[in-house]
Amino acid sequence: MRFRYKGKRYKINLFPFLVLLLLLVVLIALAAGGCRKAKAPGETPASQTESDPVSSEAGNAPLMAAGTLLSEPVVSLPEPEALPAGSLSDWNLILLNPEEGNALSTELEMERVQFDDQWVDSRAADAYQAMCDGAAEAGFTLYLRSGYRSIATQEANYQKSVQREMEAGATENEAIRRTNLYYTVPGHSEHHSGLAFDIITPEYHQFVYDLDERFATEEPYSAAYQWLRDNCARYGFILRYPEDKSVLTRISFEPWHYRYVGVEHAEYITSHNLCLEEYIAMLKEAGR
Questions:
Q1: Tens of pLDDT along 199-224?
Q2: Residue 82: closest CA among 277, 271, 276, 256
Q3: Which residues of 163-199 are buried (b: 16+ CB within 10 A; e: fewer)?
Q4: Which among 27, 40, 73, 152 has the fewest CB atoms less than 10 Å away?
Q5: Three-state secondary structure along the chain?
Q6: DSSP state of 78
Q7: What is the C-alpha separation between 194 and 110, in angstroms, rounded?
């Protein structure tokens, strides 16, 4: 290349500069290629073979329910094939809770059988009897305090609770708020399904009577509670309202309240520290 400067002619050879520029481009390309890990034939990326564990912190998870997700789940759902077989339409996976849309307007049709003067869905009866037998072998006698409850009965119980709170000095709104901690609005109660079992011991029923957290905290009753908590999933039951899930269930801790869902579902829910709301949301996400 030639050019003129102050009346003089100059000549510059650009070839060495072009060679250096080409070498620089080659070095950059080699460095970029070395940063990529080669994938072996047939290898699946790690992101497709590993699932993040489900969050067990109730405070970090959104309120969710079957058919009604109040917000997107803040959990990493397992792959659909990792979930037990089942769908949202299965009789044993019905979700009744305080959320709008998860309620009954009429009674369910079911055959019922009786334990301790209480009625339950006959399809869960064998499982409950097996659990009673297992508890007896461990030295505990189970007592069914409450099972199936009609919508009309729930309405009467609900109103009694509200009235009791008002007689204790609460305003009507406060009485309703307190009642909602332990009673669901008629139509929304799990007891309408015949799959909810309020389980205590005859001793607790006789000497304490009121259903409260003493069943989980006071001896000798707490030993029976611990056995139920540790073994219920083997028979297809879950602790329906765990202490750390009340943000999701909208029901305070109830150590006596167990729900039949079937063995596979119960074992999955228990082993992953889920409540039923979270599990139903997973099935919904999986398109079940």
A1: 999 999 999 999 999 999 999 999 99
A2: 271
A3: eebbeeebeeeebbebbbebbbebebbbbbbbbbbbb
A4: 40
A5: CEEEECCEEEECCCHHHHHHHHHHHHHHHHHHHHCCCCCCCCCCCHHHHCCCCCCCCHHHCCCEECCEECCCCCCCCCCHHHCCCCCCCCHHHCCCCCCCCCCCCCCCCCCEEEECCEEEEHHHHHHHHHHHHHHHHCCCCCEEEECCCCHHHHHHHHHHHHHHHHHCCCCHHHHHHHHCCCCCCCCCCHHHHCCEEEEECHHHHHHCCCCCCHHHHCCCHHHHHHHHHHHHHHHCEEECCCHHHHHHHCCCCCCCEEEECCHHHHHHHHHCCCCHHHHHHHHHHCCC
A6: P
A7: 8
Q: How many helices (H) and strands (E) does the chain have?
A: 11, 10
The identity of residue 276, as a single letter, is L
CB of 87 within 8 A of CB of 93?
yes
Question: Which of 254, 267, 277, 278 does the annotation list as catalytic?
Answer: 254
The rounded distance, in Å, linking the Cα atoms of 68 and 106 is 20
Task: Dihedral sign for Cα 273, 239, 228, 183, please.
Answer: positive
For residue range 175-200, list pLDDT tens digits in order: 999 988 777 899 999 999 999 999 99
pTM score above 0.85: no
Active site residue 277: no
Print burial letters for 107-131: b (CB count within 10 Å at least 16), e (below 16). Answer: eeebeebebeebbbbebbbebbeeb
Neighbours of 77 (CB within 10 A): 18
Using DSSP's 3-state secondary structure scheme, residue 246 falls into: helix
Q: Are 219 and 173 in contact (CB under 8 A)?
A: no
